[in-house]
Automatic annotation (TrEMBL):
Residues 11-126 form the Guanylate cyclase domain. It comes from the Bacteria. CDD domains: CHD. Signal peptide: none annotated. This is Adenylate/guanylate cyclase domain-containing protein. Pfam families: Guanylate_cyc. SUPFAM superfamilies: Nucleotide cyclase, TPR-like.
């Protein structure tokens, strides 16, 4: 029997849970139960209240149809505000954040399902949204901007995957609910400035004053180490110690764009530290978190908290500025904003974004040949060429080391350059030199989570497998929402494989593939782990999928990074690959 297909105009909402694969990897049952509770208590009742119809669910995602675009956006805003309230008392690692895309367009109705460009665009808009935020098409924005009392940020025209035309997009987030205008041309000519104000001691014991001051000083030092933006000196920030002051006014007085403030409370043997990151121009909180700890070794506690807070603040500033840079035209931005845009594209692991990023990066090099970070980022791009299998490691490893060393000549404190030097030395087989470069990077910037993942990779190749797993755990603790976690999982799965923990290796490799499907290492690690676990048919099936996905892969570039200092590791790797049908010498 023919199924009747009809058309109509509808508002479409596409929503998914950010970091779903990571959450499932940590606790599958708990994640599913929490997701079910959020839907039952908040999301589904709001959809019903606004007249929406759930078309289908896709694991962590929802496709919803509304008869009115105003109802669709109002419901989406209520969902995100409700989720923000639910997350207020939770550690960031335990928070659930949805991305939502809203479009108004013509749809095809087939039985109970819907199809067409209108649906596809909603899905692409969802991918552009920040976790906890909403992204809408221009058509939606035009219909709702004067009718529901919220303001959107103009993201400019965007090219959306598999959509033939560019579309202007608009964004909203509950943490930045008022209008946020794009910075003027003059403001894009330099990096934003950050200040860390002295943390307040709200405990009854004045002895904890030194802890609050030490935390503020450590944060100033750690944030300076990122080299991403200037940080105002401790002496200037501490002029406000012990005074009543408005953070936005004080920040403006110091010439800061972003301010960090916080407090320390102690009760018995428990300490609570609150920290917030504030946009000085608007007074909006961009990030806030509570840290509850037992007081044991007070200096160890200070080190731990300062590392964690710095690891979360710096990427938040860069992401926030990056969104503004992406929204501006190329003529509107200066060197710093252009570099932020390039780094975001490199981090995406998307082939087209990376291709565009390297063209833009080489253009910046022509304009700024003495910029150390440019040299380090080109070396990073070289490593991605090797990891993705697009070029053999012999072709680019010398260039990678050359660029890294040039970056360090220009700026000996560039922690990223040391990480890239470490990877280059790895590709040359100089593992002790690589580890030395890893250690120097962490010494320069101990709160950069990704540096621990790169050191973990070197330790894996050295055969220090348990220590490697410990470093991966540090990276996940310092930077739980890092966009490069799936790429880090590639190497974590390899360490687990060599330890003979095949079930865990399979789980982590699959988590990596879910996050970044176009990295061949994770597929190869999965194949070998499946083979070693006695799952021959599954190994062969994935081997066929691997060869279809990567028909032009340089296999030598992939397999070489499974050769560790202990020959037994490569034999284990080969054994699993042979089960899947690969013939490796």
């Amino acid at each position: 029997m023919d199924i009747k297909i009809t058309r109509r105009l509808a508002a479409i909402v596409s929503a998914d849970l950010a970091g779903y694969s990571r959450l499932m990897g940590i606790d599958e049952v708990g994640t599913l139960n929490t997701l079910r509770r959020h839907r039952q208590e908040l999301i589904d009742p709001l959809i019903s209240e606004h007249g929406g119809r759930i078309v289908k669910t896709m694991g962590d995602g929802l496709l919803i149809e509304f008869p009115s675009v105003v109802s669709a956006v109002a419901c989406s805003v209520s969902v995100q505000e409700g989720m923000a309230k639910r997350n207020e008392e939770l550690q960031e690692v335990d928070q659930f954040a949805f991305r939502i895309g809203v479009n108004l367009g013509d749809i095809l109705i087939e039985d109970e399902d819907i199809h067409g460009d209108g649906v596809n665009i909603a899905a692409r808009l969802e991918a552009l949204a920040e976790p906890g935020g909403i992204c809408v098409s221009e058509r939606v924005h035009d219909d709702v901007r004067d009718r529901i009392g919220i303001n959107f940020v103009d993201l400019g025209k965007r090219e959306l995957k598999n959509i033939s035309r560019t579309l202007r997009c608009w964004a909203w987030h509950p943490a930045r609910a008022e209008t946020q205008k794009i910075k003027s041309t003059s403001e894009f000519l330099k990096a934003p400035v950050l200040v860390v104000f002295p943390f307040n001691n709200f405990s009854s014991d004045p002895e904890y004053e030194f802890f609050a001051d030490g935390l503020s000083e450590d944060l100033t030092t750690l944030l300076s180490a990122y080299r991403d933006f200037p940080v105002i000196a401790r002496n200037s920030a501490f002029m406000f110690k012990g005074k009543e002051f408005d953070v936005t006014e004080a920040g403006q007085q110091l010439g800061a764009d972003y301010a960090v403030e916080g407090s320390v409370r102690v009760a018995g043997n428990r300490m609570r530290v609150n920290a917030q990151l504030i946009d000085v121009s608007s007074g909006h909180h961009l990030w806030a978190q509570k840290f509850d700890r037992n007081i044991e070794d007070i200096f160890t506690l200070q080190d731990e908290l300062s590392l964690q807070i710095a690891a979360m603040i710096s990427p938040t500033v860069v992401r926030h500025e990056g969104a503004r840079a992406n929204a501006a035209t190329s003529e509107d931005i200066g060197h710093w904003a252009a570099m932020v845009r390039i780094r975001q594209r490199l981090l995406s692991a998307d082939a087209q974004n990376i291709s565009e990023a390297i063209v833009a990066l080489l253009e910046q090099e022509r304009k700024h040949p003495e910029d150390s970070m440019i040299q380090a980022l080109i070396a990073w791009f070289n490593s991605m060429e090797i990891v993705s299998g697009t070029k053999g490691f012999r072709e680019v490893r010398a260039e990678m080391v050359k660029r890294s060393k040039r970056a360090l000549q220009l700026d000996p404190t560039n922690y990223l350059a040391y990480n890239m030097l470490a990877i280059g030395e790895q590709f040359h087989g100089h593992l002790d030199a690589a580890l030395q470069a890893n250690e120097k990077s962490i010494e320069l910037n101990p709160s950069a989570g990704l540096s621990y993942a790169w050191r973990a990779t070197t330790k894996c190749l050295l055969g220090q497998l348990e220590e490697s797993i410990e470093d991966f755990a540090i990276m996940e603790r310092l930077s739980p929402m890092d966009p490069l976690l799936p790429a880090s999982d590639v190497n974590k799965s390899r360490s687990l494989l060599f330890l003979g923990r095949f079930d865990e290796a399979i789980k982590i490799a699959r988590r990596s593939i879910d996050g970044v499907p176009n990295l061949p290492y994770s597929h190869v690690a999965l194949i070998s782990a499946l083979g070693n676990a006695g799952m021959a048919e599954a190994a062969k099936d994935h081997a066929r999928e691997f060869q279809e996905r990567f028909p032009d892969i340089h296999l030598s570039s992939v397999f070489v990074n499974f050769r560790t200092r202990d020959p037994k590791d490569f034999e284990l790797f080969k054994n699993g690959m042979k089960v899947a049908g690969f013939d490796i010498d």
